[in-house]
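Lab notes, practical 5.
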Amino acid sequence: MLDTIQKETFVELNYKVVDEKTGDVLVTVDYPLGYVHGVNDVMSEQVSKYLDGKKVGDIIEVPVDTKLLYGERDESLVFTDRIENVPEEYRQIGMTITMENAKGEPKNFIVTRFDDKTLTVDGNNPLCGREVVFRLEVLTIREATDDELDHGGAVDANPDINEILSRA
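Output from the prediction step:
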């Protein structure tokens, strides 16, 4: 039985993204994230190296440079419009609105504020420009099955931390 994280072990984690300045939890995963350590790229190399040798119950905190993940904050992706120009179903903080640019490429914008007169959307990732820590708790460590080794994670799952973060 394996008791530490090493290459080709199946690992399940709870995962949170915490704002370093405020301590606020910005993202939390409602289900364990399962992957095969050292086989797929669900975890960045920066995070993976912190997990090597950890045991069930260990909690690690990894500071992450959001500029590397998302680039610099782009204020040209923030738009404010008169509230009467926005359908009522979009008048909710956190609502995602998909728009297309002139080339027909989709871009997600999040409603960040609204009042009686205006509504503001932001196309930056919500973690962009923040100083964050990834807080991971090790839940499970075991030998990966052959199918999990081939798949890089749980057989009926496709873990992708970047997908989770893009919804942040």
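Observations recorded by the TA: Confidence is low (pLDDT under 50) at residues 161-168. The chain is about 15% helix and 40% strand.
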